[in-house]
Write a structure and sequence with these properties.
The chain is an alpha/beta fold. About 20% of the residues lie in helices and about 35% in strands. The protein is built from four helices and twelve strands, in the order βββαβαββαβαβββββ. Strands 1, 4, 5, 6, 7, 8, 10, 11 and 12 form a nine-stranded mixed β-sheet that branches. A three-stranded antiparallel β-sheet has the order 3-2-9, with no helix packed on it. β11 and β12 form a beta hairpin. The longest helix has 11 residues. It is globular, with a radius of gyration of 15 Å.
Length: about 160
């Protein structure tokens, strides 16, 4: 299973139900990595997408405690166990895509982590664990530094040892 996230230099990921900053290069990277794949997300993450609609070209799985939640174009699950049973044994094309609670639930199930690091800090109310502090992960790939709107960022791939 894979995980994809964008973090600032404090490993913050969001504020008020949205991303910290919108970078078109990161959004294109997200699309390139996840198109044709399965996304696992929480309800608030889905609702942060344009029009609160599922992303096209992907299987959108939503994990929520709300029993009445039934967005069109998504498969809704009410527990991690229920969702993972539906996935089956091959999770190589599955991407955990947020938010904070969903990331924490699936963190130990993932072997590959696609992380966009923004070299700036932003006010935030959601965070992600600092993968650089983990001894069981190593950086296996990184891009060159990108810059957009005066903000520098870089793509990293972490793999479980």
């Amino acid at each position: 299973m894979n995980l994809i996230v964008v973090v600032d230099e404090n490993w913050s990921i969001g504020r008020d139900g949205g991303l910290l900053v919108h970078l078109s290069g990161d959004l294109k990277y997200f699309k390139k990595r996840t198109y044709g794949k399965t996304l696992i997300m929480g309800r608030k993450t889905l609702e942060s997408f344009p029009g609160a609609r599922p992303l096209p070209g992907r299987r959108n799985l939503v994990l929520t405690r709300r029993s009445d939640y039934a967005p069109e174009g998504c498969e809704v699950f009410h527990s991690k166990e229920e969702l993972t049973r539906q996935l089956g044994p091959d999770t190589s094309n599955v991407f955990v895509s947020g938010g904070e609670n969903v990331y924490r639930q699936f963190l130990e199930d993932c072997d590959t982590f696609f992380v966009t690091k923004i070299y700036q800090s932003f006010p935030a109310d959601r965070s992600f664990p600092d993968l650089d502090q983990r001894e069981d992960l190593e950086i296996t790939w990184k891009s060159g530094v990108q810059e957009e709107k005066g903000i520098k960022y870089q793509f990293f791939e972490y793999t479980r040892k």
